[in-house]
Design brief:
The complex is a heterotrimer of chains A (249), B (269) and C (647).
Chain A lengths: L2 E11 L2 E11 L5 H11 L19 E4 L2 E4 L13 E5 L6 E3 L2 E2 L2 H7 L20 H10 L7 H5 L1 H4 L11 H11 L9 H6 L11 H5 L6 H18 L1 H12 L1
Parallel strand pairs in A: 1-5
Antiparallel strand pairs in A: 1-2, 3-4, 3-5, 6-7
Chain B lengths: L27 H23 L4 E2 L3 E2 L37 H9 L2 H10 L30 H21 L2 E2 L3 E2 L1 E2 H18 L2 H9 L8 H14 L2 H24 L6 E3 L1
Antiparallel strand pairs in B: 1-2, 3-4, 5-6
Helix pairs in contact in B: 1-3, 2-4, 4-5, 5-8, 6-7
Chain C lengths: L3 E5 L2 E4 L3 H12 L4 E4 L16 E2 L11 H11 L6 H21 L13 E2 L9 E2 L5 H24 L6 E4 L2 E8 L5 E8 L5 E5 L2 E4 L20 H9 L3 E2 L4 E8 L13 H4 L3 E3 L23 H7 L15 H13 L9 E4 L6 H7 L1 H11 L8 E10 L2 E2 L13 E3 L16 H22 L9 H12 L13 H15 L6 H18 L12 H25 L17 H4 L1 E7 L15 E7 L5 H4 L4 H4 L12 H7 L1
Parallel strand pairs in C: 1-10, 2-3, 2-11, 3-7, 11-18
Antiparallel strand pairs in C: 4-6, 5-6, 8-9, 9-10, 12-17, 12-19, 13-16, 14-15, 15-16, 19-20
The chains are: A alpha+beta (249), B mainly alpha (269), C alpha/beta (647).
Chain lengths: 249, 269, 647
């Protein structure tokens, strides 16, 4: 089935911009990214869109469709009625570069602040032994394709520019959880999670989980378990007592 | 920074007039949550302080009055299994030992936090919908930093769930007829089973059972417990809502039987 | 002319996929100030698309595996055209490279005793592919990316600057390599995609790790980045390409809906039990076992099914023949009218195992079909067909160091050649990236350490590169203006139709004619707008490379009058042993005055040369009977089996 779809696409840069109306051919089985490519080829050759694999595996084509953070390549046109006007804008948490492309360097800066994987001293390559049940939690988090949709939707930074300094965002709190649950990691990031990465700012309203295209249960499996680990360390006198006693023995 | 240049309007971000471009009815879930939670709070508040119709002759004790430890419980002999020592005062609920902690258990619950942060505090009301507050510090300061005490309320809630279980089981033994099963017994039983579902599916419970471990393979029993709680945990929101409903339904049923408005139907005995 | 940003590094790596990142890690660890330039964001490279796994003879699942077995499998898969030295290094070093990833934090699926689990794959005798579900490439790129971040953290601790010794230039495209007066590498010229600003990075060693050329074909599993940049940059800098006729078509790409046509369906589906069927419901692969593999594959469905559980006593299913064989078989089935409704064949796993098992083993395939095609692979078969996937040909390099014929220029990964011969085995590319990425990084570091003086960039070359880059903004001289998107579509269609999976002499001649016409049109490409993140402009510049590489492929394919691996000639359907030792070398054609023949898309020449013979001890790893299928008798005179035969 082919029809003429109606689109509103934001175009502009850091100095300003606006929504532009377009009518474009839509064919069966297409996704929003196909439509933007058709726009480029036929109407707006310089329309800036970031994309790569077009199969939901690289996390490049993040944008907002009808106000919701989505991957352009994984949003099928069949979810819209043919007369629906599809609005496409860039991510609204990061500075815009041009059209649908934003400057996501915030995320790469935050990635550098998480203490890297630290294996035990003296464990030679090839001697790593890990049980499947012990790696599964971290494996779920390593499905992350770094599309930064969770970072975009998280109100802690989306609605409060000033929090960007002190909050790593769901993606990097997930990374902290991944390393803390890694069976062979010996570093300790629990205090840093609270003090440096801003875990306490998370109010577990789960928007990160809602937008995750990989279906990672960010809140239930990473953020809350990390909050509990912080509670163990900081806010639980019994756990503190238990640690103290077992250390004495 | 001016009030209008906050968040999505901050300098450098794409200049879009609309605060949100969502076209769906994003306001519906927070609105429904508000109505649901308020309704429960109003009903629960009225009943907690009513101080009557909490015990039916069939030995049904409503969870809103368990354990009944006020001197006022003497009005219903058989309702108090754990002694009566709190003064009988209109501002002190008969179950003053459990209700505050149950309230705090739910108040600090990871699901309810999401629910009321979204619906009452609009922080955020829905994903990618701007929140109205100029400042946001999350759970880093008093009082919200107290949310970290959730596990202690979980421990207490588990004790209270045991008491509720005791109440439900005790109700099967009629003072004169011996072992009986009435509709009220089933109501109490279903309620307590779901209360266990809510209590055990708690995120803190999941952490205590095994979530804090790094090597599941070295703790096979705790790993199995964790796996089991994890499965329940995916339904934590379901249990949170359904138990609000069954608590009200159970209490209402006991109240109506106690008032004599309806008669409990005996199934066995 | 606009201002050019200038940087100076010891080693410049172009491309941030597996090979590029591994090379950068090695160079930095050897003390070199290193820069990595990539067209996309850091961590988005095409390596993330690799699904099945990373081949390494660790022997975790089947202890009989060894580097020798892996070596034999690789040479067989490549139809004995591989650089034997590369195949040897690869087979020997792959396990170390995989284990190294674990020290970076990678979490592969595990065996019961806690080691890395390995899965079956086409052409591999034993379960050999280290994997994480079906998203192994993502694990690989993320582990390397995180290793780079860890190194930057070390530098930050030491110097206060994360980028003191290792910097990633993300969304930056290199358009030209810069050489000094002696032809040695002096750096590279490119532009920032975000701003359009020009950048010159001076470096005495450049490692090309730009990946493949798949975007020149209409149906491909490759992303937009795969425009053959490294191949073209190397050619223009004076290096040679070899084996460019060998292009791998992966047998199983999605065929429906059109917008996802070509997207890869992992070979892991077949490795884990999925089977190919035609529209008659027949498992047709049993009819397509070629002579050279006779006796190595199951002959009945019963035996093939038993093999999944008992590999000692059964032979593997022909569904797992090397990719070139399977792709040709599917092509034939469809041509003969036994295809599926959308022009593919069926790949059935739904009837082979329970739904939960499929979701656990192949989560991203389940997700991909569900989301993109509305097909539930646990309930119905997939429709699949061949898709352009990988180019075996590439920059001619020294196996041990990745050095090309241009001083200071190194290459690794898909843009280098030799490792895979005429056809790559699945799973061998991820290990290729690691083994030769590391070696190229090492080679570059040693090259720089041994330099007496640093080559100096010629200012004239920078000016020329800048002028070429902005040319598409100027109105064309001919009056007609070409749209880069239209030109790209025409090129892709032509390459797909004429230089695709089955080739003929007449088609190659026509392809070369059409390339000539495209070459004229590319001069008239005009782009709108300004330089800030302008995809039309980016494409216009990439087109130069795509055309150059297209010409190298078509010319090489015209000359090789036999069928082998990723090169199938309808007019020469058989393997020809005399062609085995011949290699087709592509280089630029110089004009009489020594300058390039055409500044936009220079002309290439393809000439045959002799391939170096395999070392005797490696040759002795094969049975004489098998070698006789590929070699001429005189080449095998020294084989120990020959002596035994004589005695």
């Amino acid at each position: 089935m082919t029809y003429t779809g109606r689109f509103r696409v934001w175009r502009g840069d850091a100095d300003g911009g606006s929504l532009h109306d377009h009518e474009v051919e839509v064919n069966e089985g297409e996704v929003v990214l196909d439509i933007l490519h058709r726009l480029q080829a036929t109407q707006t050759p310089d329309l800036a869109v970031r994309w790569n694999c077009k199969a939901g595996k690289c996390g490049s084509c993040s944008a907002e469709i009808d106000g919701r953070p989505r991957l352009l390549c994984m949003t099928r046109m069949s979810v819209f009625a043919p007369d629906h006007v599809v609005t496409v804008t860039p991510l609204r948490t990061f500075p815009v570069v041009r059209d649908l492309v934003t400057d996501v360097s915030f995320n790469y800066a935050k990635a550098r602040e998480v203490t890297a994987f630290t294996p035990p001293a003296g464990l030679a390559p090839g001697e790593y032994r890990m049980q499947q049940v012990d790696v599964e939690r971290s494996q779920e988090f390593r499905k992350c394709i770094e599309c930064f949709l969770c970072q975009d939707t998280c109100h802690v930074v989306r609605d409060h520019e000033e929090n960007k300094e002190s909050f790593a965002g769901p993606r990097y709190l997930l990374r902290v959880a991944e390393l803390e649950m890694h069976p062979l990691d010996v570093a300790d990031r629990v205090d840093a999670a609270q003090d440096e990465h801003g875990l306490g700012r998370c109010n577990i309203t789960k928007c990160c989980t809602e937008v995750c295209p990989e279906g990672i249960k960010i809140t239930d499996n990473a953020l809350i378990p990390m909050k509990e680990r912080v509670a163990d360390r900081r806010y639980d006198p019994l756990a503190w007592l238990g640690r103290t006693i077992s250390r004495r023995r | 920074m001016t009030a209008t240049a906050r968040g999505v309007d901050a300098p450098g971000r794409a200049g879009i007039d609309a605060r949100t471009l969502r076209t769906d009815r994003w306001w519906l879930p927070p609105a429904a949550t508000t109505v649901g939670l308020l309704a429960f709070v109003v009903y629960g508040g009225v009943r907690a302080f009513q101080q009557q119709y909490f015990f039916a002759d069939e030995r049904y004790l409503t969870p809103f009055y368990s354990p009944c430890v006020s001197l006022g419980c003497a009005a219903e002999p058989g309702a108090a299994h754990f002694g009566m020592f709190l003064p009988d005062h209109p501002l002190i609920p008969y179950a003053a030992l459990s209700l505050p902690f149950l309230l705090l258990f739910r108040l600090t619950c990871y699901y309810y936090r999401k629910a009321y942060y979204r619906s009452f505090w609009l922080s955020p009301a829905a994903c990618a919908v701007p929140e109205p507050h100029a400042q946001y510090t999350g759970e880093t300061r008093f009082p919200l930093i107290m949310q970290n005490a959730h596990r202690y309320f979980f421990y207490l809630a588990a004790v209270i769930a045991l008491i509720n279980t005791y109440d439900a089981l005790l109700a099967f033994r009629h003072p004169t007829d011996g072992f009986v099963v009435g509709v009220g017994n089933l109501v109490l039983l279903v309620n307590v089973a779901l209360l266990w579902g809510y209590t055990l599916s708690c995120h803190s419970c999941r952490h205590v059972m095994g979530g804090r471990l790094t090597h599941f393979s070295k703790h096979p029993v705790r790993y199995r417990l964790w796996t089991w709680v994890s499965r329940l945990n995916t339904r934590h929101m379901f249990f949170a809502w359904i138990t609000l409903g069954t608590l009200v339904a159970t209490d209402l049923y006991v109240m109506l039987v106690a008032r004599g408005t309806i008669t409990d139907l005996r199934i066995v005995g | 002319m606009t201002e050019t940003e200038r940087h100076d590094y010891d080693v410049l790596v172009i491309g941030a996929g597996g090979a590029g990142l591994r090379a950068a890690i090695e160079a930095r660890e050897r003390g070199m100030r290193t820069a990595v330039v990539c067209k996309s964001l850091f961590g988005k490279a095409h390596t993330v698309m690799a699904e099945g796994g990373c081949a390494a003879a660790m022997g975790n699942v089947n202890a009989n595996d060894s580097w020798q077995v892996h070596y034999r499998d690789t040479m067989r898969g490549g139809k004995f055209l591989n650089s034997w030295r590369m195949a040897e290094l690869h087979a020997k070093e792959a396990p170390d490279r995989v284990w190294e990833l674990e020290t970076y934090g990678a979490l592969f699926d595990r065996t019961a005793d806690g080691r890395i689990h390995q899965r079956n794959f086409g052409g591999h005798t034993y379960p050999r592919l280290a994997h994480v579900g079906d998203r192994t490439g993502l694990e690989l790129i993320r582990s390397l990316q995180q290793r780079i971040v860890a190194l930057q953290q070390e530098d930050h601790a030491a110097t206060g600057d994360y980028e003191a010794r290792l910097r990633v230039f993300a969304e930056c495209t290199v358009t030209e390599l810069l050489t000094d007066d002696d032809g040695a590498i002096a750096g590279a010229f490119g532009y920032w995609r975000e701003s359009g600003r020009f950048v010159e990075i001076a470096a005495p060693a450049v490692v090309l790790a730009t990946g493949g050329i798949g975007k020149s074909f209409q149906v491909t599993s490759n992303s937009w980045e795969y425009t053959g940049d490294g191949h073209a940059l190397a050619l223009r800098a004076g290096a040679r390409l070899v084996d460019m006729e060998f292009v791998q078509f992966h047998p199983t790409g999605m065929v429906w809906p059109p917008s996802v046509k070509g997207i890869l369906v992992t070979e892991g589906v077949r490795g884990d039990g999925g089977v190919l069927k035609n529209s008659d419901g027949e498992r047709f692969m049993f009819r397509y076992v070629p002579d050279v593999f006779t006796g190595q594959y199951a002959e009945t469905e019963e035996e093939a099914d038993r093999w999944y559980d008992d590999q000692e006593n059964n032979r593997r299913t022909p569904d797992l023949l090397p990719r070139d064989e399977v792709a040709r078989a599917i092509n034939t089935e469809v041509k003969e009218g036994r295809g599926s409704p959308h022009g593919g064949v069926y790949l059935d796993i739904a009837s082979r195992m329970p739904a939960e098992e499929i979701k656990r083993r192949l989560p991203s395939m389940y997700h991909q079909f569900k989301e993109l095609a509305d097909v539930d692979i646990t309930a119905e078969p997939m429709e699949v067909g061949p898709t352009c996937h990988y180019v075996m040909g590439g920059i001619e390099v020294d196996p041990d160091t990745g050095r090309s014929s241009v001083p200071g220029l190194f290459a690794a990964g898909e843009c280098a050649s030799g490792m895979h011969g005429s056809n790559r085995l699945g799973g061998n590319s991820l290990s290729d990236l690691l083994v030769f990425g590391r070696r190229a990084g090492l080679g570059a570091a040693q090259h720089v350490a041994g330099l007496e003086r640093r080559p100096v960039v010629r200012e004239e070359a920078v000016r020329r590169a800048a002028a070429t880059a902005v040319a598409p903004f100027e109105p064309s001289s001919g009056g007609t203006s070409e749209n880069p998107y239209t030109l790209q579509t025409d090129l892709q269609q032509m390459m797909n139709d004429l230089v695709g999976i089955i080739r003929t002499h007449a088609e190659m001649m026509e392809a070369l004619d059409r390339l000539d016409a495209l070459r004229d049109r590319v001069r008239d490409v005009v782009v709108e707008g300004h330089r800030q993140y302008n995809p039309g402009w980016h494409l216009a510049l990439d087109l130069r490379n795509m055309l150059l590489v297209g010409e190298a492929v078509a010319t090489s394919a015209l000359l090789r009058t036999e069928s082998r691996g990723g090169h199938t000639r309808d007019d020469y359907p058989d393997l020809d042993a005399t062609w085995r030792r011949r290699v087709l070398v592509t280089h630029l054609r110089d004009d009489d005055d020594g300058g390039a023949s055409d500044p936009v898309v220079p002309r290439v020449v393809v000439e045959p040369a002799e391939r170096a013979p395999m070392r005797d001890d490696l040759l002795a790893l094969f049975e004489l009977a098998e070698l006789e299928k590929y070699y001429t008798p005189d080449e095998l005179a020294a084989h120990p089996g020959r002596d035994r035969g004589a005695a």
